[in-house]
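Quick start: what a row looks like.
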Amino acid sequence: AEFALVASPRNTNEELYLAQKFARLAMDSNNVDVASYDRPGIMEGLHDVFGYYAGTANIQDTGRSACVLVVSANATEEQNVLAVPIKQAVRAGTQQLIVIDARETELTRFAHVWLRPYPGTDLAVVGGMLKVIVDEGLVDRDYVAERCEGYDEMAASLAPFTLDAVERETGIPAARIREAARTYAEAATATTIYARDNTWR
């Protein structure tokens, strides 16, 4: 009989290493996978938007980014290898860190801006930030013209995300949302990290 081991993507790297060792030695099987593809529509969405079935930045690039936005992702627990260069860059003063999360995580202690919205409203905060970026002309128009499709439709879809409306829904003051948006948009390079849970809503 053949065996296969499917591990949770919420495991740490160390736990996944032990799982594959167990599968190969105890189960005598090379059939090892991680359940990252249990919702293939998520991966297809990434491909449609970015042209890849996964993230577009590697760990080294993330550590070198001038700004990192973390949306409801506990990177320290879920992917500490990714969290380490972020903490190092923030300590060195080479990176601004924005965290949108109702929970207090380790990265919130490193954040220059921590937006703590009502639970379940984190994506409304992102919408508010995006509206600020569009309304204040902080968009790289050359990049959009060269590489993006559907920009005008996306910008029009932001109409409900007035800062007053987002503040009422999330509990985050409009000034803080504007501060986070400007910090992110004005950075020379920026990376966004989000938990897969955000893509299921």
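That is the whole record. The two ends are 39 Å apart (CA to CA). The mean pLDDT is 88.
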